[in-house]
Amino acid sequence: MPPTPYPELNAVLRHLVSGVRAALDDAFVGAYLQGSFAAGGFDLDSDVDFIVATEHELTKDEVEALQAVHGRTYDLDCEWAQHLEGSYFPRDTLRRLDRRGRPLWYLEHGDRALTLSEHCNTAVVRWVVREHGVTLAGPNPSGLVDPVPVDALREEILETIRDWGQEILSEPERFSNRFYQSFIVLSYCRMLHDLHTGRIQSKRAGAEWAKGVLDPSWAGLIDRTWDGRPNPAVSVRQPADPGEFDRTLDFVRHVIEAAPRFLPGAETCGDSPGADVEGRSDATGGSPD
């Protein structure tokens, strides 16, 4: 089976993996899709999230060879080639959750060169790779990653809800464009959903679930941000509507405050006293598409 339903993207991925294998030679272990192309909910506007597992920390010569591979891939005459995002994990780092947070060689969405970043070195990425990773080359990814304890997954999600939220609220001008306005709302819906379920699902599933369990006053914002999601390359250059962005900041504040109520064992869930998420399973949007 091809890794995605999009032939042009599959051609880009073949080009990328072929170049990476040649650059790394015996240091290559495997290449995998993660993110929405693994967990579900992808479409023509999705980033293409990947990881590459390597036998060891990359050497200077290996990094230089990979920089050339990514430059050639970026220059392909295909839009998908500019929407790749991913990191290179030494095998031992990928396996062990206690090595999360260390910088890895990383390709940011829209870039043509690798930089060092801890972006992908998370419990969430490990969980998606182990549970749903799509193999482009190499062994089954479940054998490369130790199981991620659900408590560790929830802890990281809760930390991200709080820490990223504080970053957004303290420097809102950095995020005041149409792309980020939509991305923030949908990401916070998904994180809240994932926090509650203890598994990573899609933005679409998170948005539908959030509309069912949060106060109905948030439903319009969630629907409008989903409708405004397409064409990220254009929307990132367009200013956010001031009213919608202020409402988005209010949503971030609300989710930060509400998040602990969605943990298992919390006395209440939802936006009103006694609201029972489990009792409203028809609104969970459980499918990851």
Number of E-state strands: 6
Please state the overall shape, judged from the principal axes of the Cα atoms. globular
Low-confidence parts lasting 5 or more residues at pLDDT below 50?
272-289
Number of domains: 2
Q: Give the end-to-end Cα distance, rounded to a whole number of Å.
A: 19 Å
Strand content: 5-15%
Supply the number of helical segments: 11
Major β-sheet strand ordering = 5-4-3-2-1-6
Largest sheet: 6 strands, mixed
Order of secondary-structure elements: HEHEHEHEEHEHHHHHH
In helices, the fraction of residues equals: 40-55%
Secondary structural class: alpha+beta
From the alpha carbons, calculate the radius of gyration and give it in angstroms: 19 Å
| Mean pLDDT score | 90
Structural key phrases:
single chain; 289 residues; alpha+beta; 2 domains; six-stranded mixed beta sheet; 11 helices; globular; disordered C terminus
